Amino acid sequence: MNKYIDSLSEDHNKFDHDDGEYRNWSSLEKKIINTIKKHDSHRGEWLTEYDAMEYYEKAQKLSSFDRQDIGPRRELRLELQAKFDLTEVEAINM
User: Which residue, among 23, 1, 2, has the nearest Cα to 12 in the 3D structure?
Assistant: First the structure.
């Protein structure tokens, strides 16, 4: 599957399987695996602080009276979603 996920399985076998710690490890392992899968399936560019500030400044230049997701603001959101593989909510919150 993924070299990171395979190494997690190996580390899991070495882990002290105390009841309480095992549950925590299992939960942590699932979170790590989900994060790795999301990283591997990422289709866009990685959003940097510079990119975020660039789009923030573009949004600030748009009309302050119209905060609805229509017209130029919608185009900007769609551009963000396509370029950086963001969800609609993530793009709107930028």
Answer: 23
